[in-house]
Amino acid sequence: MAKTTKILSTVMVGALAVSLAACGNNSNGNTSNNTNNNTGGNANSGSGAEKVTITFQNIYPDSTDPKYGMLHKIVDDYENAHPNVHIELDSLNTDQQKQKLKTQAASNEVPDITIVNPAAQMQPFVDADLFAPLNDMVEKNGLKDSFQEGILDYYTFDNNLYALPDGNNIGLVYYNKALFAQAGVEVPTTFEEMVDASKKLRAAGITPIAIGEKDSWTGSFLFMNILLRTNEGPGFLQDVVDGNKTFEDPAFKEAVDAFEKLVDAKAFQDGATSFDYNSGENLFKTGQSAMYYMGSWATGGIETSDANKDDNIGVFKFPTVNGKGDPNEFMLAPGSAFAVSKNSKHLDETLDFLNYFMINYPKEAFAVKGAVGVAQTVDGDFAAAGYSNMAMQVLDMFKDVKGGDISFDNTMNPGTAQVHLSSIQSLFVSKKSADAIAKEHQTAYEENK
Asked: Which of 269, 276, 315 is nearest to 295 (CA)?
């Protein structure tokens, strides 16, 4: 059963509150580390066991991201303990994986383990009966209790859990202190100051904001934070669904106008729609742009990047727009999640590996400084482990979360979401009136509801 924005936002805030247990010294909360070498006991591991290959589709293709190394370590450890099992990695960027999964689903050839996004994006795959329920698996070895309170609701339909998330995040702005100083720019406290800062940075020969808009969800994620402000709080999409508002509401049009001010200020790198997520992020990580708006999951990759040498990277909350909104209301981002094909030829072994992977995920993510925004409780002292000042600032922001919205494509039906993604993406290459963008959205919603 699909869930509403109001319900999901409430759940998300509760989950984020629980995550704060990981920020203190030597947390004694429930953690996956209590059973970090337990494989669940479902798979045969003897030398005479049948040889098994499990295809693991994932979105960790970037070798500069700490989670890339984490993934390979867990896989190697499992294969060493189970010599009859080979984990075949299919590592793709986010949009490539989404498109490939759609093709695979259409031919009923879903890989043993794949990546799905929560709520509305996941619904069609669940309706097509493609995934195996994970209820029994997570009840073993305390795995279910390792997840932050409420986070699994995003991946549960008709009381069946179909995927296990990697993250629980918020949207924020990373910035390069040295490039700000070079252009004489202060950290913006309003959207208008952010636009002005972009103009000054551009005039100084610095790309203001990096984005990977070939993967159209990135622009949508930024746009939705603007809408969260112009709407003066969360729930705009829910109001549309409930019939209380339309996309031609003044708050939506105001958000479009504000977004176009960033484009007009040449805030984004030239050819932004030709950069995918990873290449856009790498502009920031290599010190080639001054700001980067993204979910807090990016913290790990930025943590160890060239740009963050000498604690050069800071973060700030997305500011007010035209004096509207509360910076302590965030875009909320329940993570992508791991689902298992119902028709896997090696279902027992696949479930056993996923169980092992998730049990070890927080421990290994913490070790490579990639544990900010993990969906499970993390047992560790971030500061003592050498996490940067930037990472500690992000962790502090989690404490300030009052509420927020989840992304457009995790809320609306796929037909409306696709029109939205294309419509916002078009703003990067050609100017359109707010009226025209609003009408595109409303027409798509009426045709697809």
From this structure: 315
Separation of CA 8 from chain center: 15
CATH architecture of 5-167+335-380: 3-Layer(aba) Sandwich (3.40)
Rounded to whole angstroms, the Cα distance separating 138 from 153 reads 14
State pTM to two decimals. 0.88
Q: What's the CA dihedral at 340, 343, 344, 347 to 10 degrees?
A: 80
Quick one: average pLDDT of 337-356?
97
Taking residue 435's Cβ as centre, other Cβ atoms within 10 Å add up to 11
The whole-number average pLDDT for the span 310-329 is 98
Q: Identify the three-state secondary structure at position 57.
A: strand
Helix (H) or strand (E) holding 179: helix 177-183
CATH topology of domain 169-332+404-448: D-Maltodextrin-Binding Protein; domain 2 (3.40.190)
Residue by residue, DSSP assigns 217-271 as: HHHHHHHHHHHHHHTTSS-HHHHHHTTS--TTSHHHHHHHHHHHHHHHTT-BPTT
Structure confidence at residue 28 (pLDDT): 30
Q: How confident is the model at residue 16 (pLDDT cuts 50, 70, 90)?
A: low
Specify the domain boundaries for CATH 3.40.190.10 within the chain.
5-167+335-380, 169-332+404-448
Smallest Cα–Cα separation from 211: which of 151, 148, 293? 293
What local confidence, expressed as pLDDT, does residue 49 receive? 74
